[in-house]
TrEMBL record:
The protein's name: Mitochondrial poly(A) polymerase
Coiled coil ranges: 133-160
Cofactor(s) recorded in Swiss-Prot or TrEMBL: Mg(2+); Mn(2+)
Segments forming domain PAP-associated: 395-439
Residue ranges occupied by any Poly(A) RNA polymerase mitochondrial-like central palm domain in the UniProt entry: 143-301
Entry-linked InterPro entries: MTPAP-like_central, NT_sf, PAP_assoc, RL
Key words, A-Z: Coiled coil, Magnesium, Metal-binding, Transferase
MF terms (GO), sorted A to Z: metal ion binding; poly(A) RNA polymerase activity
Listed GO CC annotations: mitochondrion
GO biological process: RNA 3'-end processing
C-alpha cells in the first residue's frame, strides 16, 4: 500500500548516514589504498599474497585504462608505510626520475606469466554507448522501468567512486608537502549522487584545517605566524594554485596536460590523471560549491524519483546537445538539476521541500555561514517529512517537459529556496537563483538561442509523450523514453550535420506524427524550431 511504501522510504532514511559522514569514510578508505599498474594477465592470487605481507587487504578491484590497474585497500594505514619501505625508485635508462614516493605503483612480474590461472574480473569505468543504452531501454516494459534502468546503467559505481577518492588522496600527498593539514575533497557530481560514469572529478583544496588550532586566551601573550600577504583572497588562491599546478605537472606521476586556469571566476588547475582516466579540476577556497553538492545529494536521497528524473533529463539534454562538455552559452548539468528540483517542488502535493524548509529543520550543529551567506541546511534526513505524492515517473517526465515548455522565462526566475517562481531581477535569458549566494544567477551564461532550443525540445518531447503511439512497446523501433532520444525534427538545426546520418526509419515515424501536428495547427512548436535553424 501507499502508506507502507512511504514508511519504508522514511525508515530507509533513518539509517542513512549524513553527507559528511559518508565523505569522511570514503576519504579515510582512500588514505589506506594504493593504485597499482599491473600486467593484464595477472595471477590475482599471487598478487594478493604478495601484498598481504604488509597487512590485511580489505578490498581490491581491477580495471582497464590504457593498461590494467588494481586498487588495493588495506585495513590499516601502517600497511601503506610498510609497503613503501619495500618499494624502490626505478633506475631509468637514458633518463632521470623525480624521486617522488607516491602511492601510484607498478607491479613487476619477472619472466613471462602462464595464462593457465583464471583472469581477474575487470570493473568497467566508462558509461555505456547510446546504442547500448537504447538496447537496454528497449527491453523494459514501461517508462518508469526505463528511467530506473537508465540510472543504473549510468550512475557511478562503488568502485568508480573509490577510485575518485583515491585520486584526490594521491593529489593530497603532493599538496600536503606544502600544507600538511590540507585535505583534497571531491565535490560536484562525484558526490552529489547525480554523477554519470565518465564525468570529471571536481576537487577542492581545503585549507580549513590550518586555522583550526586551539586559540587559548590567557595572559595576553601569544605567538603568531609571520605570513606572506596577497592583495586579496582571490590573489592568494591564485598564487597557491599556480604553485600546486606546477608541482602536479612536474612531480605528479600520471598527471598530464596540466593547465592553470587562474583567471576564471573560480580559479582552477585542470589536468588529466592518466591511470584513472579522469579529467580533474582542482579549485581552492570553494566551500559554497561543496555545500551545493551536499544540498543536491540531500534532494537525491529524499525520494528515488529525483535521481531517476535527473538522470533521464540530463541524458535527454546531452543527446540533443542542450548541454555540452565544452563551456559556453549552454545550460549546464548543475542548472538542469536545479530545474528538476524546482519542478518537483511545484507538484501537488510537492515531492521535494523548499530550501528554506531544509534550513528551518537544521539543528545547532548544522549552522553554516560561508563568506556572509547563510548556507545552513539540515543534515539529519530523518527530520524531513514528505507529503504523499505517488506520481509515476512517466507522468513526472511528461509534466517536466510541459512545465518548462510553458515556463514564463521572460519574467520569472527559478528559486528553489522559496520553491516558487520569483520576478526576474535581471534581463538575462535564464535566471536560476544560486541556492546559497542568493544575489547570483547560476545560469547567467545561457543565451536566448540556447534557452529557445531547450524550450522547443521540451515542447516536442511533451507532445511526443502525449502520443499513445510512442508508448506502445512496438517491434524494433525505439519507444517510450528511447523515442525521446531520437534526433529532434523541430529544433537543434545547429547539430544537424552530426545527426543526419542517424535519421532512421524510427524517427520518420515520429516525423510523420509531427508533420500531422503542424497541419493541425501546432504552430508554436513548428515556428520555434525554424527560428532556431540559424543557431
Ligand atoms: P558534471 O557536468 O557531471 O560534471 O556535473 P557537476 O555538477 O559536477 O558540474 P560541474 O563540474 O560543472 O561543476 C561542479 C560543481 O560546481 C557543481 O556541482 C556546482 O556545485 C558548482 N557549480 C558549477 N557551476 C556553477 C555555477 O554556475 N554557479 C555556482 N554557484 N556553482 C556552480
Ligand atoms: Mg563535474
Amino acid at each position: 500500500t501507499l502508506a507502507e511504501k512511504i514508511t519504508e522510504r522514511i525508515s530507509e532514511r533513518i539509517f542513512c548516514k549524513t553527507f559528511q559522514a559518508i565523505q569522511e569514510e570514503r576519504r579515510e578508505q582512500a588514505e589506506r589504498s594504493v593504485l597499482i599498474s599491473c600486467p593484464s594477465k595477472i595471477n590475482e592470487k599471487k598478487f594478493l599474497d604478495y601484498l598481504s605481507k604488509h597487512g590485511t587487504i580489505n578490498k581490491h578491484f581491477f580495471y582497464n585504462s590504457y593498461g590494467a590497474y588494481a586498487v588495493v585497500e588495506f585495513s590499516s594505514r601502517e600497511s601503506i608505510a610498510s609497503l613503501k619501505e619495500s618499494i624502490n625508485i626505478p633506475a631509468v635508462e637514458h633518463e632521470a626520475a623525480v624521486p617522488f614516493k607516491s602511492r601510484l605503483l607498478s607491479f613487476k612480474w619477472p619472466g613471462s606469466q602462464s595464462s593457465s590461472h583464471p583472469m581477474p574480473k575487470f570493473k568497467v569505468q566508462s558509461p555505456p554507448s547510446i546504442n547500448e543504452i537504447n538496447q537496454l531501454l528497449s527491453e523494459k516494459d514501461s517508462i518508469d522501468e526505463q528511467l530506473q534502468c537508465l540510472t543504473e546503467a549510468l550512475e557511478l559505481t562503488e568502485e568508480n567512486v573509490s577510485l575518485r577518492f583515491l585520486v584526490c588522496s594521491l593529489l593530497r600527498d603532493i599538496t600536503g608537502a606544502y600544507f600538511p593539514e590540507c585535505i583534497i575533497r571531491p565535490f560536484g557530481s562525484t558526490v552529489n549522487s547525480f554523477g554519470k560514469l565518465g564525468c570529471d572529478v571536481d576537487m577542492i583544496l581545503d585549507l580549513e584545517g590550518i586555522y583550526a588550532t586551539s586559540q587559548k586566551k590567557g595572559s595576553g601573550l601569544s605567538l603568531e605566524y609571520q605570513v606572506k600577504r596577497g592583495a586579496s583572497e582571490r590573489a592568494v588562491t591564485q598564487s597557491i594554485l599556480s604553485v600546486i599546478g606546477k608541482c602536479v605537472d612536474q612531480f605528479g606521476p600520471g598527471c598530464v596536460g596540466v593547465q592553470n586556469i587562474l583567471q576564471a571566476r573560480c580559479p582552477l588547475v585542470r589536468f588529466s590523471h592518466q591511470p584513472s582516466g579522469f579529467q580533474c579540476d582542482l579549485t581552492a577556497n570553494n566551500r559554497v560549491a561543496m555545500k551545493s553538492s551536499e544540498l543536491l545529494f540531500l534532494y537525491g536521497q529524499l525520494d528515488p524519483r529525483v535521481r531517476h528524473l535527473v538522470f533521464g533529463v540530463r541524458c535527454w539534454a546531452r543527446v540533443h546537445s542542450i548541454t555540452s562538455s565544452i563551456p559556453g552559452a549552454w545550460i549546464t548539468n548543475f542548472s538542469l538539476t536545479v530545474m528538476v528540483v524546482f519542478f518537483l517542488q511545484q507538484r501537488n502535493p510537492p515531492i521535494l521541500p523548499t530550501l528554506d524548509r531544509l534550513k528551518e529543520l537544521a539543528g545547532p550543529s548544522d549552522k553554516c555561514v560561508i563568506e556572509g551567506n547563510d548556507c545552513t541546511i539540515v543534515s539529519d534526513l530523518s527530520k524531513i517529512t514528505l507529503q504523499q505524492n505517488t506520481d509515476t515517473l512517466e507522468k513526472l517526465l511528461q509534466e517536466f517537459f510541459e512545465f518548462y515548455g510553458n515556463f514564463p522565462f521572460n519574467k520569472a526566475s527559478i528559486n528553489i529556496r522559496k520553491g516558487k517562481e520569483q520576478t526576474k531581477p535581471e534581463t538575462t535569458a535564464l535566471y536560476i537563483q544560486n541556492p546559497f549566494e542568493t544575489t547570483l544567477n547560476i545560469s547567467k551564461n545561457v543565451n536566448a538561442t540556447q534557452l529557445e532550443r531547450f524550450v522547443a525540445l521540451c515542447r516536442e518531447s511533451a507532445w511526443l509523450l502525449q502520443q499513445k503511439e510512442i508508448l506502445n512497446r512496438s517491434s524494433d523501433s525505439p519507444w517510450g523514453f528511447a523515442a525521446l532520444l531520437l534526433p529532434s525534427v523541430t529544433s537543434g538545426a545547429g547539430v544537424k550535420s552530426r545527426r543526419k546520418r542517424k535519421l532512421e526509419p524510427a524517427s520518420s515515424r515520429i516525423k510523420n506524427l509531427l508533420d500531422s501536428l503542424k497541419i493541425k495547427g501546432g504552430e508554436t512548436v513548428a515556428k520555434k524550431g525554424s527560428a532556431n535553424s540559424s543557431s
